[in-house]
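### Sample
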Amino acid sequence: MRLVDYLDKGASLDAGAPCLTTDGQQRTYAEVQHLSRLVSAALAARGVRPGDRVAILSANDPTAFTCVFGISRAGAVWCPINPRNEAAENRELLDLAGCVAVLFQEQFAPLIKQIHADLPGLTTLVCLDGPADGALGWDDFLALGVAPVDEPALDDLAMIVGTGGTTGRPKGVELTGTNLETMTAITLMSYPFEGRPVYLALAPLTHAAGVLCFPVLALGGEIVVMRGPGIGVFLDLVQTHRVTHTFLPPTLIYMVLAHECLDDTDLSSLQCFWYGAAPISPTRLEEALRRIGPVMAQLFGQTEAPMMISTMAPRDHFRPDGTIATERLASAGRPTPLVTVAIMSAEGALLDRRETGEIVVRGSLVMRGYHHDPAATAAATVAGWHRTGDIGYLDEDNYLFIVDRAKDMVITGGFNVYSTEVEQAIMRHPAVQDCAVIGLPDDKWGERVTAVVQLRAGHTADPAELGSFVRAQLGGVKTPKQIEIWPDLPRSKVGKVLKRDIKATLAP
């Protein structure tokens, strides 16, 4: 399926049903379809052909998201651009993908102006919501289209998604229609969907929150788009719109749990509250199961194998007698039906249950490769397996446990310390809101385990107390030798804690 086929499938069920809702304004499936055809025709009038790359640079916005389907309908390839990236990284990604057009919001016009001169192949600029130098206005752009077109794609390529960029030129992950169809099929078979779903998108539509829209659209569901963050607004929208499905990374779930309005909000409509994109504290997850409800649903994936390497449906968080299965809460669920998962040693041997190594996967969920980077594609592949870069193991019940990212493991005094294990120990302290554990250079230890902690509002704790708390659980080797308490942690647009920013601040 092409990306636009999910929209058209939903429209075939009820063209008059609400499709995209923002700030109380609804657009029906028929209206979104019509606008996507106008976008497709306008792109064709500007010379965009099937297989060409078209980027979108926007915060959460229903018009911008509709453009995704216009791009697909024209047979072109969608390149989502993260507004939070540095200008140089976005320039590199646009150049790598060979984008011929960018559709952007007025607030990002300065960024476009900064990089456009270095991108001679970028021939079409369109501002979605206002005037911008050198760009077509939205109405003028749409007026270019003579007749709607619906071009099939030249091949199965649907998206080029940027990843990396912190250590050099970013990589472009090639995701095909087959990859996203596999992801959608796994989603629909793994989680509860009763009736017509209502999906609330707070997290950026350029990331996980966006691709989770495709299974919702296939069922004719409604997508409620939040333009900006705000936990109070999020809770109000869940109650007002009777939201059935939503997704948040763990750091935002912690904010939901800390919000004063949570316990007074009617969350009874929720069927599935997805969490993922980073490890979650089992302590906070248990709290969420009690206070938000038995609707928490984990997903584990990465850009190269989107979203659904393993899943844990709401029911899997509980034992047959209805009690919380605390022994599973630290897991990433079970490998999904359409993905094969194994654990591999550094020498390339597949390991047995409970043996720790790199998590490798194979199946139609895995990307086609890195765009114009055969060396990186080859490095991420071994004997037909895709290397995730995550370290973990499978238990006797086939639950997958991720102990760390390979790059985040701290080697201190000759011992391997997994940052995730230390973070989970710190998160058990009742005063801790969030934390991140990194390794910093140390003359004695090679690396010293270092923790940066954000406390809950109204709570206090000092580094000595937190150190003793961790030592009682993990012993001296894994206890951070340096603990910093910060008012907040640096986060990406999708809510992940930016460990590289912490290292840059603390590194000598």
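Residues 29-45 form the longest helix (17 residues). This sample (AMP-dependent acyl-CoA synthetase) is used throughout the tutorial notebook.
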